């Protein structure tokens, strides 16, 4: 019924267009984990990143409310879960709980929310229930939900190979995630196997800082050419000598000259 429309559906489409371009690709910068580590990039780095023109920036609540003008021309993606820090012992399971309500994310101007998910972890029921609850809330206001899908846990209790990356990501999509942020297999030729059965945009996370900026740019170009919808890089951007210039280089790698 093409003549039917939905205000909620329109809201999700509008919000998603803030960080996904017409080519179906997006370049995201992640500066959202300081709330767990208590350290990270310079306080004003979001302004330098925004000046380079990424499609979206993953941020903590403090960055979202302290630097609203940085999101004039790019999407704001709010980290909505956490509550565990890296100051003590960091467990192998899912210790991330929902911190903010979807209504709060909409109130601060978020274009999407992001949360962790660990399919395959011994306690994965905790994370999956959290993700489904967020999806339920988000559907009421037309808010896209990005699941940061990590097979097993950060302890790698499940292999981070193409098979398990793909299965974990698909599980998150099947329960309602609108997009996925995850790692990619070491062999780029296996990336199409990860993407093939996932009916949602898949963003490749950057992982540890590369030895050179050229290496980071080439990696971005490789994963997008292999089928990823884009990248979500953190340390490889805010750790660059010139974050603004690095954003520009990575944007070109994702979208082409």
- Rounded radius of gyration (Å): 17 Å
Name the average pLDDT.
91
Helicity, as a percent range: 25-40%
Give the CA-based shape.
globular
Which CATH class? Alpha Beta
Q: Which stretches are poorly predicted, pLDDT < 50 over at least 5 residues?
A: none
Number of helices: 11
Strand order of the largest sheet: 1-2-3-6-7-8-9-10
CATH overall fold name: TIM Barrel
Q: Label the structural class.
A: alpha/beta
Strand content: 15-25%
Overview of this protein structure:
There is one protein chain. With 257 residues, the chain is of the alpha/beta class. It has a single domain, classed as Aldolase class I (TIM Barrel). Helix content is 39%, strand content 16%. Helix 3 (45-52) runs parallel beside helix 11 and helix 9 packs parallel to helix 11 (243-255). It is globular. The mean pLDDT is 91.
Please give the structural blueprint:
Layout: H1 7-16, E1 26-31, H2 34-37, H3 45-52, E2 56-59, H4 61-66, E3 75-79, E4 81-82, E5 97-98, H5 102-108, E6 112-117, H6 124-141, E7 145-149, H7 162-174, E8 179-182, H8 191-195, E9 202-205, H9 213-225, E10 230-233, H10 235-238, H11 243-255
Parallel strand pairs: 1-2, 1-10, 2-3, 3-6, 6-7, 7-8, 8-9, 9-10
Antiparallel strand pairs: 4-5
Task: Provide a short characterization of the protein structure.
The protein has 257 residues and is α/β, with parallel strands linked by helices.
